[in-house]
Design a protein that fits this description.
Chains A, B: It comes from Thalassotalea mangrovi. Two copies of one chain form a homodimer. By secondary structure, chain A is α/β, with parallel strands linked by helices. Chain A has two domains: 152 residues, Medium-chain alcohol dehydrogenases, catalytic domain (Quinone Oxidoreductase, Chain A, domain 1, Alpha-Beta Complex); 150 residues, Rossmann fold (3-Layer(aba) Sandwich), CATH 3.40.50.720. Helix content of chain A is 23%, strand content 26%. In chain A, strands 3, 5, 6, 7, 8, 15 and 16 form a seven-stranded mixed beta sheet that branches. In chain A, strands 11-10-9-12-13-14 form a six-stranded parallel beta sheet, with helices on both faces. In chain A, strands 2-1-4 form a three-stranded antiparallel beta sheet, with no helix packed on it. Chain A is globular, with a radius of gyration of 20 Å. The two termini of chain A are 16 Å apart. At the A-B interface, helix 6 and strand 14 of A face helix 6 and strand 14 of B. Strand 14 of chain A pairs antiparallel with strand 14 of chain B.
């Protein structure tokens, strides 16, 4: 059995390019005792993978050069010597960036028995959905009276944050990077949308959208977005920090906002979090989210690239604003 | 009765200068019914007064031009038509920057009945002491196992933070701006001192002092100190943000650290606070602190300027690193 897989062959400086990656064909052995052969059907590309390409200690080890990349994926067991995973079992796992692989099962999770397209377990019912849900319900406790500002609001996490916040009764201000994305998040029911590429002054745009000030800033971006949020935050505001994508491709240090003193004078709470810490909430999350979806209260948007050969383009596209909702690769 | 008082006559750009202030003599009326005449004996100058000189909405109203400044002070009632404050009563209040004033008593607090020099109620037993104590016990919960980094460690707040942290059993790394101050904080028992003006790379100095990483950064300074702390913080580190003095005199926006993404990847909590919110803890604080002082476990250092005419120099001196411990003006 042949498997195609993508290796990282050099560490990107700035925006990654195709040259940083290489497609490699390997031959898989037959699955041994207790092992299964998994054929991947969908894989995820996510912004957090970019910092993993830097050789630096972090909450997750850096990607190694000349080894296959890793990332969330969905697959189907096509050969099995493990009774926990009979042939035909649909599984989620972190062995993306390859067409198939051998597993002893310890890294596989059988997909929950919910009648939805399987790729949703990489998006709204997977890591991005859990990130949005945990950020609003576990990291902070979102209140009905909150006005919330969401950056990267059309992304996999942001678009779910907007919808959960609306479900909770909040006023939601969304920031996106194109008019098309603005239409998309408007359709999700947000109260105001800012196309940050079209405004001269993000603080003024935010003040106009939220003259009452903002109580929560869901931080996906950093930089100017954080600066504007700090300017417009109300006292005791909360900033769950999910990511800071604006800095991920910086080839030299990019200075932070000049108004961090507002953290002090406005008595703000800035709280970094990583979804891994909330994996034990997955059953609670998935039950809630599946209900919302069944009731039509949460909608999922996907941007799909086709074939492993296009996975690198899909990944780079994350930083070029090419996705609405979850960026996926159909294998 | 004449009173001398200091007015703010122009808003400083950058470091304040004597020209921003004016000394004015006024004549006080005799105290009316229910009123008292207070003669100030000590006044406090504090870094937070600098941002109050900017005409900007904040947790405390900005100082008004051509009006007398305000600030913590200690005084003695020398004429009284109010039985709550007989002649001779020692009081603390916010009507500093003047030699005497008339009060109806609503803004006066009778000094606690503790046998200590009265000016301690402007320092270790006053606002700076409460700030240090609340920051370590209410804003975060300092644990014995914590390694804590304290910036502006020789200041009124920082020097108390260092000592409370040592009392709690923590390893304490202090940053100061002169060798003399380094000697002072060493004598307080801290485990390592960095004279930040003498090191090329604050991050490396901090890593050397705390190879195990830091769990808490008590933020008084901002800028490079925050950047170094973020670099060296352990996962789940906590940053109580008491102030950011490095930016107070900036005459143009000074960019923040370029490594704020560590808030996300290290899952840090950055928590701004203002001592006003902890005034209801004052009795608990003062009982605890007075005990520690009586047992010789907390030492107080003071830097004293003499006379209201030198109050402006004392205030400016705060930003020139001229104080060890509490900066006071003896009237």
């Amino acid at each position: 059995m042949k498997s195609q897989q993508i290796h990282l062959i050099s560490r990107p400086t700035g925006l990654p390019t195709a040259d940083n990656f290489k497609s490699v064909e390997i031959t898989l052995p037959a699955p041994g005792q207790g092992e299964v052969l998994v054929k991947n059907t969908w894989m995820s590309v996510d912004p957090y993978m970019r910092p993993r390409m830097i050789d630096r200690e972090s909450y997750i080890p850096p990607f190694q050069l000349d080894e296959v990349l890793e990332g969330g994926a969905i697959g189907e067991v096509i050969e099995s010597n493990n009774s926990n995973f009979p042939v035909g079992t649909k599984v989620s796992h972190l062995s993306g960036w390859r067409t198939s692989f051998i597993s002893d099962g310890t890294d596989l999770t059988v997909l929950p028995d919910i009648e939805v397209p399987e790729q949703l377990f990489l998006g709204t019912l997977g890591m991005p959905g859990l990130t949005a849900w945990a950020g609003l319900t576990k990291v902070i406790e979102l209140k009905e009276s909150d006005t919330i500002f969401v950056s990267a609001a059309s992304g996999a996490v942001g678009s779910i944050v907007c919808q959960i916040a609306k479900l909770k009764g909040c006023k939601v201000i969304a920031s996106v990077g194109s008019d098309e994305k603005a239409e998309f998040v408007k359709a999700l029911g947000v109260d105001a949308v800012i196309n940050y590429k079209k405004v001269d002054n993000l603080t003024e745009a935010l003040e106009k959208a939220a003259p009452e000030g903002i109580d929560v800033y869901f931080e996906n971006v950093g930089g100017e977005h954080l600066e504007a949020a700090l300017n417009v935050m109300n006292d005791y505001g909360r900033i769950p920090v999910c990511g800071m994508i604006s800095s991920y491709n910086a080839d030299k240090p990019t200075p932070g906002p000049s108004n961090l003193f507002f953290i002090n004078s406005k008595k703000l709470t800035v709280q970094g979090f990583i979804v891994i810490d909330y994996f034990d909430c997955f059953p609670e999350f998935v039950a809630q989210m599946a209900n919302w979806m069944a009731e039509g209260k949460i909608k999922s948007e996907e941007t799909i690239y086709h074939g492993l050969d296009n996975a690198v383009d899909a990944f780079i596209g994350l930083f070029e604003g090419k996705n609405k909702g979850k960026m996926l690769v159909k294998l």
